[in-house]
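Propose amino acids for all 422 sites.
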């Protein structure tokens, strides 16, 4: 019991340690994070990033699956799992014949899982929900005469994001059904700024800053039904999250500046931000110990929430994933690894200047490399590569291409086993 409490304390301290890191570096650089909550993140760990973001119908006693809390019940009696991940990203912006690259890195998540009682597993995790990060400007000529030209410059900048601390339980009352729920604390801040200035100092400039510092307690729940034979096993899963209004008043301050002095400032408040209602469904098929196929569908009702007075759009997300595990042979490195792949598609969840935003297309490949030691061969280093394209729905809008390298480590140890003394 003392050992269990010690490791739980260690995990909680690690989560507190990465919180300021996540606030300082969010790993995103996109002008489209001006809209909505910014760039959204699924509750997916490294394993599921490699499988296209599937997981609602997946069950594996060696993997933490945050996509469905019902999966927590699969953890072994004596097993403790600790999973940490980070990512490296190159973003290619494409607008007509103009291309530009930006590179980012981020510490993505930390999660831990253990069994409280046969059929009852517990998980704690710290994950991102969304990220905001951009800074760009444009300049245009508003007047040209014999005395020269007068230009107008608009500068746009934004930062922040939302993060989630999660505590969840998964229970298997019978072998064919599992249920689970997460308690979630979401917090963070969003800040967007628009500054308009002129090359002629006699013309007043204007700056408008949108801000929101928010927090909320919420929950989600899941269920998984298992059926089939020992050779061919099927799992059908479903999840639900209700709409949750967050504390914190979004507002905007509009400054008018004349000769470097703010001559007036108006403040406007907006409807509180809210976490949208979400419904998910998934199915997986496991053939023997070697092949797993999975499919997910997810609906997030952003149309029921507002972002600084702008309504969102209902987002549909579809994903397919697979995992192949060869017959193990420690003398052949290629037969020691697990191979994964996936694809996904998501519809826009926000409008851009009155037009539908960007659709998302993605593909991923990954593998798990076992960490071999004297005690077990279950711990793995997970590596995956993702290609993601954000495709505009209207001509003239900028497209974004992402190349992302995901790295994670899953420590899976029999930490609660009592040592025998000879």
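Proposal:
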């Amino acid at each position: 019991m003392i050992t269990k409490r010690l490791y739980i304390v260690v995990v909680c301290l690690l989560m507190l340690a990465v919180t300021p890191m996540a606030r300082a570096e969010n790993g995103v650089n996109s002008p489209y994070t001006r809209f909505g909550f910014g760039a959204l993140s699924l509750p997916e760990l490294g394993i599921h990033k490699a499988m296209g973001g599937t997981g609602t119908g997946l069950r594996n006693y060696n993997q933490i699956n945050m996509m469905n809390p019902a999966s927590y019940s699969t953890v072994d009696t004596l097993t403790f799992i600790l999973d940490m991940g980070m990512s490296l990203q190159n973003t290619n912006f494409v607008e007509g014949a103009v291309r530009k690259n930006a590179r980012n890195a981020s510490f993505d998540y930390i999660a831990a899982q253990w069994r409280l009682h046969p059929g009852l597993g517990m998980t704690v995790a710290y994950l991102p929900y969304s990220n905001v990060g951009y800074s760009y400007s444009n300049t245009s000529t508003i007047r040209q005469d014999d005395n020269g030209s007068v230009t107008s410059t608009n500068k746009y900048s934004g930062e922040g994001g939302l993060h989630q601390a999660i505590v969840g339980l998964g229970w298997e009352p019978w072998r064919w059904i599992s249920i689970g729920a997460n308690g979630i604390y979401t917090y963070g801040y969003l800040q967007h700024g628009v500054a308009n200035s002129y090359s002629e100092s006699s013309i007043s400039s204007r700056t408008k800053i949108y801000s929101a510092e928010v927090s909320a307690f919420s929950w989600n729940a899941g269920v998984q039904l298992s059926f089939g034979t020992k050779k061919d096993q099927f799992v059908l899963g479903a999840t639900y999250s209700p709409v949750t209004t967050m504390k914190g008043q979004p507002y905007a301050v509009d400054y008018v500046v004349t000769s470097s002095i703010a001559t007036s400032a108006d403040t406007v408040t907006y409807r509180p931000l809210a976490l949208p209602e979400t419904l998910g469904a998934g199915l997986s098929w496991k053939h023997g110990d070697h092949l797993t196929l999975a499919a997910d569908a997810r609906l997030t009702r952003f149309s029921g929430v507002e972002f600084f007075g702008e309504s969102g759009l209902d987002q549909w997300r579809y994903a397919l994933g697979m995992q192949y595990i060869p017959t193990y042979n420690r003398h052949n490195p290629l037969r020691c690894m697990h191979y994964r792949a996936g694809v996904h598609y998501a519809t826009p969840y926000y409008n851009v200047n009155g037009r539908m935003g960007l659709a998302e297309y993605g593909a991923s490949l990954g593998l798990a490399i076992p960490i071999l030691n004297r005690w077990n061969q279950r711990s793995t280093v997970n590596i995956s590569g993702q290609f993601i394209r954000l495709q505009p729905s209207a001509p003239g809008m900028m497209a974004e291409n992402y190349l992302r390298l995901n790295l994670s480590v899953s420590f899976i140890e029999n930490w609660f086993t009592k040592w025998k003394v000879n």
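The chain has one domain: 2-413. The chain is about 5% helix and 60% strand.
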